[in-house]
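User: I'm writing a tutorial on reading structure tokens. Could you give me a worked example: one chain, its sequence, then its tokens, then a sentence or two explaining what the tokens reveal?
Assistant: Sure. Here is the example chain.
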Amino acid sequence: ITGYGDSPPVEMAVTAQGRRTFLEHVFQELDMQRPVLVSPSMSGRFSLPFLLAHGDQLAGFVPIAPVGTKDYTAEQYQGVQTPTLILYGDRDTGLAPQALQNLQHLPEHHVAVLPGAGHACYLDKPEAFHQALLGFLRQLK
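And here are its predicted structure tokens:
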């Protein structure tokens, strides 16, 4: 993600609208048609504004304890029809419960909890993560 870790800061990443626009540009440049957006942790600052504005352009959404879920209302989430797999590790007692509380307002959601996994559940339990993700992808239209 731009602006985090060793990545260079990007001016447009300062606002939610800028982050949404950045993601729009990425999808356009890669010529992606109805991708599934997988969004762990800090990437929620990019994915959530995009989902709420352009969720119809996604085949699916997979939030993994993303940040920023509390920045939006239940009503905003309820307007999104994108099939969603809310995925998290049961040992992520910080961000995951808050994300679940907010994201459960998405009408087309399923929840997958990975036992014994923490915040980076895809690193802690990669096989279980991939099984959940592939199961979700198989049922998409």
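What the tokens reveal: The helical segments are 16-29, 44-54, 74-78, 95-103, 121-124, 126-138. The domain at 34-139 is CATH 3.40.50.1820 (Rossmann fold).
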